[in-house]
Amino acid sequence: MTASSDPTPIAESQPGGDDLPAITARALRLRLRQQEILAELGVLALQGTPFPDLIETTVTLVAEGMQAEFCKAMEHLPERNCLIVRAGVGWDEGVVGHATVGADLESPAGFALRTGKPVISNHLDHEGRFRTPELLVAHGIHRAMNVILQGEGKPWGVLEVDSRSDGSFTEHDVAFLRGAANLLGMAIERQRFERDLKASLEQQEILLQEGNHRVTNSLQLVASMLSLQSSAASTTELREQLQEAVSRISAIARAHERLYRTRQIRNLNLGDYLTDICKDMDDAAGQCDVHVSVAEEVQITTDRAISISLVVTELITNAAKHAYSSGETRPIWVTLERDGDMLTISVRDAGDGLPEGFDPKKSKGLGMRIVSGLLAQLKAELTVKRDEPGTAFVMTIPIHGQR
Ligand SMILES: Nc1ncnc2c1ncn2[C@@H]1O[C@H](COP(=O)(O)OP(=O)(O)OP(=O)(O)O)[C@@H](O)[C@H]1O
Ligand SMILES: [Mg+2]
User: Fold this and answer.
1) Domain finish residue from 178, 195, 212
2) Are 61 and 37 in contact (CB under 8 A)?
3) Ligand 2 centroid vs 166 CA: distance in angstroms?
4) 76 and 114 in contact (C-beta within 8 Å)?
5) 3 state SS for 211-235
6) Is residue 277, in this structure, part of any structural domain at all?
7) Which of 313, 334, 368 is the best mutation target for the ligand 1 pocket, counting ligand atoms within 8 Å of the beta carbon and taking the most?
8) Residues 309 and 394 in one domain
9) Span from the CA of 366 to the centroid of ligand 2 (angstroms)
10) In terms of Cα–Cα distance, which of 333, 283, 340 is closest to 312?
11) Structural domain count of the chain
12) 146: domain range?
């Protein structure tokens, strides 16, 4: 996938151009070891080995496979027109992470980078085509071989082996080096892809959080405007109605606020969410105490969780408003239980009880109409139990939308 366009190495002229007759048992063993190394690197790349580990292992194994004292992987820094050593073996302290070589066509590594062609230089001392980089001179290097490192997009850098010893790098060595470079190129590409993916996911999350944040702010703004309007209302009845609208809008705003404060987007933990909502309601419910007990690990879609939270908010508001005409303690209990795919949620009080003939389906109040509407959407069923004392509203709700 990452082979460069022209596989012909740019080498000094070699007598005969073919080293086949020179193949000995030792050379054969070396080629076999090179094959093993490529297989080893391939497995590491496929296993998704972290890039810094893979690049370290690559330079170490490539040096071994080439029987060379030095190897390095260099990253191209276009703004400085140079290549910086990112990983290496054999080099003096301070080279890896710091040393650079020119990325222009006159340096062997620069030539490999810009043309995509492998470069063999077996006699650096007599090299007429390239200038020998200072780094190689300082380490007494006689011969070098460079291949480009690239993903599917633009080049990343160069992989180079160097040796102080006499001898020659050959076309077979180029094939091995290119094999290693291609495997590293795969990892470079994956690393780029993962980085881009992470950035775009983060961007999406920020946008969504921002959206929820704005919805919350707008709802709070509407609630404050209605609140102002209610304080200026001409009749008590109108004032109370506007105030009720304010509490409902505030309940929806609170639900949204919870959403943008969590990192969950499509699903959320219903138990945690209801606990939070009930805590808010406890603050808003005046003399009443809201007690919550929830099953753990109930994951549910955000849409369903919001509808459920609005139903629970209405029922707690009713209990706080209508259940207790007197009493020091005014408890309200909210429970969430799970049985397979079914949830049971109850909102219970120990108050004076419902008025005679109360029928949730026929109630003229807006509260019970909202509850009935949302429960129908949720495909849920409501049972109203007259306790001694008090009332329990018990709902059975399927976790998933369709039954
Ligand atoms: N927990 C409860 N205990 C006693 N009575 C209740 C309880 N919940 C509801 N009710 C009675 O049921 C009636 C209907 O409730 P509903 O929520 O529909 O209307 P509301 O609370 O009166 O007005 P709104 O909800 O529109 O502000 C209430 O007026 C109240 O008489
Ligand atoms: Mg009500």
Assistant:
1) 195
2) yes
3) 93
4) no
5) HHHHHHHHHHHHHHHHHHHHHCCCC
6) yes
7) 368
8) yes
9) 6
10) 333
11) 2
12) 25-195
Q: Could you tell me the two tokens for 138?
A: 């300082």
- Alpha-carbon distance of 240 to 260, in angstroms, equals 30
Nearest to 147 by CA among 51, 37, 7, 1: 7
Ligand nearest, relative to CA of residue 364: 1
Tell me the pLDDT of the chain (403 aa) as tens digits: 444 444 455 555 444 444 555 568 888 888 999 999 999 999 998 888 888 999 999 999 999 999 999 999 999 999 999 999 999 999 999 999 999 999 999 899 999 999 999 999 999 988 888 889 999 999 999 999 999 998 667 899 999 999 999 889 999 899 999 999 999 998 888 888 888 899 998 888 888 888 888 888 999 999 999 999 999 989 999 998 898 888 888 878 877 787 777 766 678 889 998 998 888 888 777 788 999 999 998 999 988 998 999 999 999 999 999 999 987 889 999 999 999 999 999 999 999 999 998 998 888 888 999 999 999 999 999 999 999 899 999 999 999 986 4
Report whether residue 305 contacts ligand 1, using a CB cutoff of 6 Å: no
351 touches 323 (CB < 8 A):
yes
**Looking at ligand 1, which atom is closest to the CA of residue 347?**
1
Residue 385: inside a domain, yes or no? yes
Whether 289 maps to a domain, the answer reads yes
Instruction: Classify residue 7: in a domain, yes or no.
Output: no
Does 372 contact ligand 1 (Cβ within 6 A)? no
Kindly report the protein residue whose alpha carbon is nearest to atom 27 of ligand 1: 367
Using the mean position of ligand 2's atoms as its centre, give its distance from the Cα of residue 365 in Å.
6
Establish whether residue 392 lines the binding site of ligand 1, counting it when its CB lies within 6 angstroms of any ligand atom.
Answer: no
Q: Judge residue 231's burial from the number of C-beta atoms within 10 Å of its C-beta, 0-12 exposed, 13-18 middle, 19 or more buried.
A: exposed
Listed residues 165, 195, 225: the one ending a domain: 195
193 lines ligand 1 (CB under 6 A): no
The residue nearest atom 3 of ligand 1, judged by CA position, is: 323
CA of 316 to the centre of ligand 2 (A): 9
Is 44 found in the same domain as 163? yes
pTM of the complete model: 0.59
The reply to whether ligand 1 has any atom less than 6 angstroms from the CB of 223 is no
